[in-house]
Hints:
This protein has 116 residues and is mainly α.
Amino acid sequence: MKTRDSLVRLKEFQVNEKRRQLQQLQMMMAEFERMAKELEHQISLEEKKSGISDPNHFAYPTFAKAARQRADNLQVSIKELKVQQDAAELALEEAQAEHAKATALEERDATVRVRA
């Protein structure tokens, strides 16, 4: 049946799209983690250079404050992306189940056509 074949292709497309979205989220998380580590390294260097590691100290380096805020923002973004990743993984599992069901129906229909 053409409609079943179309359904299988649609479900396969949806599975591939969900995989792509999941990979994109994972790449963004990895990039944010890399950026946060680089900022932490820069903060550490700035604190060593100034000799002040207490962010509440009046002479704490402005660059270190800004970099610390940026690193904190990145950590918040990573946590939000993790939530999105969990949802995307669930959506991918559902799409894979729907694809498997559509494929099974297509195979069943093909077997029925061959016997008839």
